[in-house]
Write a structure and sequence with these properties.
It is built from five helices and twelve strands. It is of the alpha+beta class. The strands form three sheets. It has a five-stranded antiparallel beta sheet, covered by helices on one side. The chain has a five-stranded antiparallel beta sheet with strand order 5-6-7-8-9, covered by helices on one side.
């Protein structure tokens, strides 16, 4: 299954996704669930059937992206998916972060059969995926004032929460087994992306430009587990 964590911190927003997926034969495999559009104005993470999530998310990111109507983009991608691959789409739950002019806006968009249900995310965090995983993640996220955190601290905390959930819920991939995918979208226009992040006992990868006095990942993990 899947867990996706969205955080809105004081200088941007963060998406973290696990990478574990189940195959029909019962074995686990890695799967990308977080996608960035070519012009880097849209980030989407999806939970649901692996084939449908990856295809639909890829189609959305591949469309001409002027970021004026996310719902229309979804309709177009789902219609194309049904034409190419299947007449019906099973449940797909997505979180979309899009840059609209000079601001960042997030949406929760669900595809349920033939319906597309969308809502603007105004809260400081949102999770989607397996119900048991969401309950645990929401519990830890409610303990923090996410909107008061800088993106570095918020990213540490999101990774720690994801790992805590993976340790307690079957079907959510652990960082040491499958890694996590991370996207950071800052208010100043910068975007940092790390795929298959596995450094559980180290600083977050240098691609994130962590300063030397940043909080240690292990300390954050312990805090999330208390």
């Amino acid at each position: 299954m899947t867990l996706i964590i969205y955080l809105r911190c004081n200088d941007g927003c963060i998406l973290v996704s696990d990478r574990q997926a189940s195959s029909p034969g019962g074995y686990n495999r890695q799967e990308k669930k977080l996608f960035l559009s070519e012009n880097k104005n849209l980030v989407i993470a999806g939970a649901g059937d692996g084939f449908e999530v990856s295809r639909i998310c890829s189609l959305i990111c591949d469309t001409e992206n002027n970021d004026t109507n996310v719902r229309a983009k979804f309709n177009e991608a789902v219609d194309e998916f049904r034409t190419r691959y299947a007449p019906a789409v099973s449940d797909v739950d997505t979180i979309v972060v899009v840059r609209e002019e000079d601001r960042i806006v997030a949406y929760n968009i669900n595809i349920i059969g033939t319906q597309i249900i969308d809502s603007r995310i105004t809260a400081e965090f949102r999770t989607c995926g397996r119900p048991a995983a969401k309950i645990i993640a929401d519990y830890f996220l409610m303990k923090k004032k996410i909107d008061e955190l800088d993106w570095i601290t918020a990213t540490h905390y999101a990774i720690a929460v994801m790992q805590e959930v993976a340790n307690n819920v079957d079907g959510v991939g652990k960082i040491e087994n499958f890694g996590f995918d991370i996207s950071v979208i800052l208010n100043n226009g910068e975007i940092y992306e790390k795929e298959n992040f596995r450094e559980i006992s180290a600083w977050i990868h240098t691609d994130f430009k962590i300063p030397e006095d940043a909080p240690n990942f292990i300390e954050t993990t312990q805090e999330a587990g208390n």
